[in-house]
Prior knowledge:
The protein is mainly alpha-helical.
Amino acid sequence: MEPDRSLLGQGPYPTTGPLAVLARAGFLAAAAAVVLAVVLPPRYVPDFVRSTYLQHFAAYYVLSLLGLAASARTRISVVALRVVVFATAMESFHLLTGARVRPLIDNWVADMGGLAAALAPIAVARFRRRFERPPEARA
Length: 139
C-alpha cells in the first residue's frame, strides 16, 4: 500500500513524514524536560501546578502520549514498559542524593497514573472494537 501523507488518510503514514518526525522530536523534548527536572535543584524547576503529584501525573501523561505518537508502530505494551523503566530510573536517581523512599514511591505512583491515563482511551477503544457488528450484519 502506498504511504499516505495526509493527516487523516486511510493509508499507512511514512515513518519519515513531518508529523512522525515532529512526534519523535516532541517525545525527546519531553524526556529531556523530565531529566532536567530531576537533575536540576528544585529551585530551578518551575512549578506549573501547586501539587507535586499533579506535576508528576501531567509530565508522564504528556510523555506517554508523545511516546505513543513517536513509536506509532511499536506495541503499546512495549511503549508502556519503556515509560515505566524511565520513571523508575528517574525516581531512583533521587536515592543517590539521599532522598527518603516514601515520597519517591508516591511520586512514582503519580507517574504511573499519568501513564495509565494516557493508555486508558486506547484500551477502551480496543475493548469496544471487539463488540462491533461484523460487516455482513450491518447491512
